[in-house]
Amino acid sequence: MAATAVSFDTTKQWLLVDCAEGTQHQLLATSLSPAKVAVICITHIHGDHCYGLPGMLSSMSLHGRTESVTLIAPQKLIQFIHLSLGLTDVKLGFDLQCHAVETLTQELDLTFCRVKPIELKHRVPSYAYQITECGIPKKLKIEKLKADGIASGPHFNALQKGQDVTYEGKRLCSSEYTFDSWRPRKIIICGDNEKPAKLQNEVDGVDLLVHEATFTHGDLHRVGLHTGHSDAKRIAEFAQKHHIPMLALTHFSVRYHGPGMLEPLKSEACEHYQGQLYFAEDLLSLSVPKQRN
Questions:
Q1: Where does Zn(2+) 1 bind (predicted)?
Q2: In 10 A of CB 246, how many CB atoms?
Q3: Which stretches of the chain are assigned E, i.e. beta strand?
Protein backbone atom coordinates (compact mmCIF):
# COMPACT_ATOMS: atom_id res chain seq x y z
CA MET A 1 0.00 0.00 0.00
CA ALA A 2 1.44 3.37 -1.01
CA ALA A 3 1.35 6.80 0.63
CA THR A 4 4.29 9.19 0.97
CA ALA A 5 4.15 12.52 2.80
CA VAL A 6 6.50 15.40 1.99
CA SER A 7 6.82 18.24 4.49
CA PHE A 8 8.90 21.42 4.41
CA ASP A 9 10.88 23.61 6.82
CA THR A 10 9.14 26.82 5.83
CA THR A 11 5.44 25.90 6.16
CA LYS A 12 3.03 23.62 8.01
CA GLN A 13 1.40 22.77 4.69
CA TRP A 14 2.45 19.42 3.27
CA LEU A 15 2.15 17.26 0.19
CA LEU A 16 0.91 13.68 -0.18
CA VAL A 17 1.87 11.30 -3.00
CA ASP A 18 -0.64 8.43 -3.30
CA CYS A 19 -3.27 7.59 -0.73
CA ALA A 20 -3.84 3.90 -0.12
CA GLU A 21 -6.38 2.49 2.32
CA GLY A 22 -5.11 2.99 5.84
CA THR A 23 -3.39 6.32 5.11
CA GLN A 24 -5.57 8.19 7.62
CA HIS A 25 -4.90 5.60 10.29
CA GLN A 26 -1.14 5.82 9.79
CA LEU A 27 -1.28 9.62 10.04
CA LEU A 28 -2.44 9.26 13.64
CA ALA A 29 1.08 8.07 14.51
CA THR A 30 2.71 11.18 12.99
CA SER A 31 2.77 14.92 13.70
CA LEU A 32 1.13 15.68 10.35
CA SER A 33 -2.35 17.18 10.40
CA PRO A 34 -4.93 16.23 7.73
CA ALA A 35 -6.05 19.85 7.83
CA LYS A 36 -2.67 20.94 6.45
CA VAL A 37 -2.57 18.76 3.31
CA ALA A 38 -2.26 21.33 0.51
CA VAL A 39 -1.29 19.11 -2.45
CA ILE A 40 -2.18 15.51 -3.31
CA CYS A 41 -0.52 13.71 -6.22
CA ILE A 42 -1.76 10.29 -7.36
CA THR A 43 0.59 8.23 -9.53
CA HIS A 44 -1.95 5.86 -11.13
CA ILE A 45 -5.41 4.37 -10.77
CA HIS A 46 -4.60 1.04 -9.08
CA GLY A 47 -6.38 0.74 -5.75
CA ASP A 48 -3.28 0.22 -3.61
CA HIS A 49 -2.34 3.78 -4.53
CA CYS A 50 -5.68 5.61 -4.33
CA TYR A 51 -8.53 3.82 -2.52
CA GLY A 52 -7.98 5.88 0.62
CA LEU A 53 -8.47 9.21 -1.12
CA PRO A 54 -12.27 9.77 -0.78
CA GLY A 55 -12.08 9.22 2.97
CA MET A 56 -8.93 11.33 3.25
CA LEU A 57 -10.60 14.29 1.55
CA SER A 58 -13.62 13.97 3.84
CA SER A 59 -11.41 13.87 6.92
CA MET A 60 -9.46 16.91 5.77
CA SER A 61 -12.74 18.81 5.61
CA LEU A 62 -13.86 17.52 9.03
CA HIS A 63 -10.51 18.62 10.49
CA GLY A 64 -11.28 22.19 9.41
CA ARG A 65 -9.44 22.59 6.13
CA THR A 66 -10.81 25.68 4.36
CA GLU A 67 -7.90 26.64 2.10
CA SER A 68 -7.97 25.21 -1.41
CA VAL A 69 -6.33 21.85 -2.10
CA THR A 70 -4.57 20.90 -5.33
CA LEU A 71 -5.18 17.38 -6.67
CA ILE A 72 -2.99 16.09 -9.50
CA ALA A 73 -4.21 12.71 -10.69
CA PRO A 74 -5.27 10.66 -13.71
CA GLN A 75 -8.54 11.87 -15.23
CA LYS A 76 -10.30 8.59 -14.38
CA LEU A 77 -9.42 9.04 -10.72
CA ILE A 78 -10.71 12.61 -10.69
CA GLN A 79 -14.01 11.28 -12.03
CA PHE A 80 -14.00 8.56 -9.36
CA ILE A 81 -13.46 11.12 -6.59
CA HIS A 82 -16.29 13.37 -7.76
CA LEU A 83 -18.65 10.38 -8.03
CA SER A 84 -17.63 8.97 -4.64
CA LEU A 85 -18.12 12.29 -2.85
CA GLY A 86 -21.36 12.98 -4.69
CA LEU A 87 -22.91 9.55 -4.09
CA THR A 88 -22.07 9.74 -0.38
CA ASP A 89 -23.36 13.32 -0.11
CA VAL A 90 -20.03 14.75 1.05
CA LYS A 91 -19.67 18.53 0.85
CA LEU A 92 -16.04 19.55 1.19
CA GLY A 93 -15.25 22.69 3.14
CA PHE A 94 -12.53 23.66 0.66
CA ASP A 95 -12.10 24.12 -3.07
CA LEU A 96 -10.59 21.00 -4.68
CA GLN A 97 -8.57 22.22 -7.66
CA CYS A 98 -8.13 19.21 -9.96
CA HIS A 99 -5.46 18.80 -12.63
CA ALA A 100 -5.55 15.77 -14.92
CA VAL A 101 -1.94 14.60 -14.97
CA GLU A 102 -2.25 13.45 -18.60
CA THR A 103 -2.78 17.04 -19.73
CA LEU A 104 -0.07 18.74 -17.67
CA THR A 105 2.64 19.99 -19.99
CA GLN A 106 4.74 21.92 -17.50
CA GLU A 107 5.72 22.19 -13.87
CA LEU A 108 3.09 23.47 -11.44
CA ASP A 109 4.21 26.26 -9.10
CA LEU A 110 2.43 25.63 -5.80
CA THR A 111 3.94 28.36 -3.59
CA PHE A 112 6.02 26.17 -1.25
CA CYS A 113 7.07 23.70 -3.94
CA ARG A 114 7.00 23.00 -7.66
CA VAL A 115 5.61 19.72 -8.96
CA LYS A 116 6.42 18.13 -12.29
CA PRO A 117 4.91 14.82 -13.48
CA ILE A 118 7.10 12.31 -15.30
CA GLU A 119 5.55 9.54 -17.40
CA LEU A 120 6.55 5.99 -16.44
CA LYS A 121 5.88 2.53 -17.87
CA HIS A 122 3.32 0.27 -16.18
CA ARG A 123 0.26 -1.79 -17.10
CA VAL A 124 -1.81 1.39 -16.84
CA PRO A 125 -0.59 4.98 -17.28
CA SER A 126 1.65 5.72 -14.31
CA TYR A 127 3.63 8.78 -13.26
CA ALA A 128 6.42 9.96 -11.01
CA TYR A 129 6.34 13.38 -9.37
CA GLN A 130 9.43 15.55 -9.20
CA ILE A 131 9.03 17.86 -6.20
CA THR A 132 11.30 20.89 -5.91
CA GLU A 133 11.43 23.01 -2.78
CA CYS A 134 10.77 26.74 -3.04
CA GLY A 135 9.97 29.59 -0.65
CA ILE A 136 13.43 29.26 0.89
CA PRO A 137 14.40 32.17 3.20
CA LYS A 138 16.66 34.72 1.53
CA LYS A 139 19.99 36.09 2.69
CA LEU A 140 21.37 39.48 1.72
CA LYS A 141 24.47 39.95 -0.42
CA ILE A 142 25.91 42.40 2.11
CA GLU A 143 29.21 42.97 0.27
CA LYS A 144 27.41 43.77 -2.97
CA LEU A 145 25.07 46.17 -1.20
CA LYS A 146 28.06 47.96 0.35
CA ALA A 147 29.93 48.03 -2.94
CA ASP A 148 26.91 49.63 -4.61
CA GLY A 149 26.69 52.28 -1.88
CA ILE A 150 23.38 51.07 -0.47
CA ALA A 151 23.10 51.84 3.25
CA SER A 152 21.10 49.63 5.59
CA GLY A 153 17.49 50.45 6.35
CA PRO A 154 13.94 49.11 6.01
CA HIS A 155 14.63 48.34 2.35
CA PHE A 156 17.00 45.54 3.47
CA ASN A 157 14.10 43.73 5.10
CA ALA A 158 11.94 44.19 2.00
CA LEU A 159 14.67 42.82 -0.26
CA GLN A 160 15.08 39.82 2.03
CA LYS A 161 11.33 39.13 1.71
CA GLY A 162 11.71 39.01 -2.08
CA GLN A 163 10.35 42.48 -2.74
CA ASP A 164 11.88 44.91 -5.22
CA VAL A 165 12.34 48.41 -3.74
CA THR A 166 13.34 51.95 -4.69
CA TYR A 167 16.36 53.45 -2.91
CA GLU A 168 17.44 57.04 -3.62
CA GLY A 169 15.70 56.92 -6.97
CA LYS A 170 17.27 53.59 -7.98
CA ARG A 171 15.26 50.39 -8.43
CA LEU A 172 16.75 47.51 -6.46
CA CYS A 173 15.79 43.97 -7.50
CA SER A 174 15.60 41.39 -4.73
CA SER A 175 16.97 38.70 -7.05
CA GLU A 176 20.13 40.77 -7.56
CA TYR A 177 20.84 41.44 -3.89
CA THR A 178 19.75 38.21 -2.19
CA PHE A 179 20.37 34.47 -2.43
CA ASP A 180 18.63 31.37 -1.07
CA SER A 181 19.79 30.24 2.37
CA TRP A 182 20.25 26.73 0.94
CA ARG A 183 20.04 25.03 -2.42
CA PRO A 184 16.46 23.98 -3.26
CA ARG A 185 16.07 20.31 -2.44
CA LYS A 186 14.61 18.05 -5.10
CA ILE A 187 13.07 14.60 -4.80
CA ILE A 188 11.28 12.20 -7.14
CA ILE A 189 8.55 9.87 -5.91
CA CYS A 190 7.53 7.22 -8.40
CA GLY A 191 4.48 5.16 -9.08
CA ASP A 192 4.78 1.62 -10.40
CA ASN A 193 7.39 1.49 -13.17
CA GLU A 194 9.14 -1.29 -15.05
CA LYS A 195 11.59 1.02 -16.82
CA PRO A 196 13.83 3.20 -14.59
CA ALA A 197 15.38 4.74 -17.72
CA LYS A 198 12.15 6.74 -18.15
CA LEU A 199 13.58 9.00 -15.41
CA GLN A 200 16.99 9.56 -16.97
CA ASN A 201 16.30 13.09 -18.24
CA GLU A 202 14.83 14.24 -14.91
CA VAL A 203 17.27 13.08 -12.22
CA ASP A 204 19.98 15.74 -12.54
CA GLY A 205 20.38 17.36 -9.12
CA VAL A 206 17.88 15.03 -7.41
CA ASP A 207 18.61 14.49 -3.71
CA LEU A 208 16.30 11.53 -3.11
CA LEU A 209 14.64 8.99 -5.39
CA VAL A 210 11.74 6.90 -4.08
CA HIS A 211 11.16 3.95 -6.42
CA GLU A 212 9.54 0.55 -6.30
CA ALA A 213 11.59 -2.65 -6.21
CA THR A 214 8.88 -5.29 -6.37
CA PHE A 215 11.23 -8.21 -7.16
CA THR A 216 14.82 -9.32 -7.19
CA HIS A 217 16.32 -9.47 -10.67
CA GLY A 218 16.13 -13.26 -10.77
CA ASP A 219 12.53 -13.41 -9.55
CA LEU A 220 11.43 -10.82 -12.11
CA HIS A 221 12.81 -12.99 -14.91
CA ARG A 222 10.96 -15.99 -13.50
CA VAL A 223 7.57 -14.24 -13.25
CA GLY A 224 7.99 -12.38 -16.55
CA LEU A 225 9.82 -9.20 -17.52
CA HIS A 226 6.73 -7.20 -18.39
CA THR A 227 4.90 -7.22 -15.07
CA GLY A 228 4.93 -3.42 -15.00
CA HIS A 229 7.35 -3.51 -12.07
CA SER A 230 11.07 -3.09 -11.39
CA ASP A 231 13.68 -5.17 -9.62
CA ALA A 232 16.21 -4.10 -6.98
CA LYS A 233 19.22 -4.61 -9.25
CA ARG A 234 18.00 -2.39 -12.09
CA ILE A 235 16.90 0.52 -9.94
CA ALA A 236 20.07 0.32 -7.82
CA GLU A 237 22.23 0.36 -10.97
CA PHE A 238 20.23 3.31 -12.31
CA ALA A 239 20.66 5.33 -9.11
CA GLN A 240 24.37 4.55 -8.99
CA LYS A 241 24.90 5.50 -12.65
CA HIS A 242 23.18 8.86 -12.16
CA HIS A 243 24.89 9.64 -8.83
CA ILE A 244 21.67 9.94 -6.84
CA PRO A 245 22.79 10.35 -3.21
CA MET A 246 19.71 8.86 -1.51
CA LEU A 247 17.56 5.95 -2.70
CA ALA A 248 14.46 4.61 -0.94
CA LEU A 249 13.02 1.35 -2.25
CA THR A 250 9.33 0.48 -1.79
CA HIS A 251 6.47 -1.76 -2.98
CA PHE A 252 7.93 -5.18 -2.24
CA SER A 253 6.16 -8.32 -3.44
CA VAL A 254 4.37 -10.34 -0.75
CA ARG A 255 6.90 -13.12 -1.37
CA TYR A 256 9.39 -11.01 0.63
CA HIS A 257 7.10 -10.30 3.60
CA GLY A 258 8.09 -11.81 6.93
CA PRO A 259 11.16 -11.91 9.20
CA GLY A 260 14.35 -11.84 7.14
CA MET A 261 12.48 -12.16 3.85
CA LEU A 262 13.75 -8.80 2.54
CA GLU A 263 17.37 -9.94 2.65
CA PRO A 264 17.55 -10.98 -1.06
CA LEU A 265 16.31 -7.51 -2.09
CA LYS A 266 18.65 -5.77 0.33
CA SER A 267 21.66 -7.81 -0.76
CA GLU A 268 20.97 -7.17 -4.44
CA ALA A 269 20.47 -3.41 -4.01
CA CYS A 270 23.58 -3.02 -1.81
CA GLU A 271 25.68 -4.83 -4.38
CA HIS A 272 24.87 -2.27 -7.08
CA TYR A 273 24.41 1.01 -5.17
CA GLN A 274 26.85 2.77 -2.84
CA GLY A 275 24.75 5.75 -1.75
CA GLN A 276 22.41 6.11 1.23
CA LEU A 277 19.98 3.22 0.78
CA TYR A 278 16.66 2.80 2.58
CA PHE A 279 13.98 0.12 2.52
CA ALA A 280 10.47 1.38 3.13
CA GLU A 281 8.58 0.32 6.20
CA ASP A 282 5.55 1.82 7.89
CA LEU A 283 6.25 5.32 9.24
CA LEU A 284 9.80 5.47 7.86
CA SER A 285 10.89 9.12 8.05
CA LEU A 286 13.78 10.50 5.98
CA SER A 287 15.36 13.94 6.15
CA VAL A 288 17.03 15.39 3.07
CA PRO A 289 19.99 17.49 4.27
CA LYS A 290 20.35 21.10 3.25
CA GLN A 291 23.23 22.04 0.98
CA ARG A 292 24.34 25.61 1.60
CA ASN A 293 24.76 27.97 -1.33
A1: 44, 46, 122, 192
A2: 19
A3: 4-8, 11-17, 37-41, 69-73, 96-100, 108-109, 113-119, 127-133, 138-140, 165-167, 170-172, 178-180, 186-190, 208-212, 246-250, 276-279
- 44 is an annotated ligand-binding site residue: yes
Each residue's pLDDT tens digit, 139-193: 999 999 999 999 999 999 999 988 999 998 899 999 999 999 999 999 999 999 9
Coil, helix or strand at residue 191: coil
Question: Residues 164, 173: contact at Cβ < 8 Å?
Answer: yes
Is residue 288 assigned to a domain?
no
Task: Please identify which of the residues 18, 48, 180, 219 carries the catalytic annotation.
Answer: 48
In this structure, is residue 25 part of a structural domain? Answer: yes
Beta-ladder partners of 37 = 14
Q: How many domains does the chain have?
A: 2
Residue numbers of the domain that contains 205: 4-136+181-279
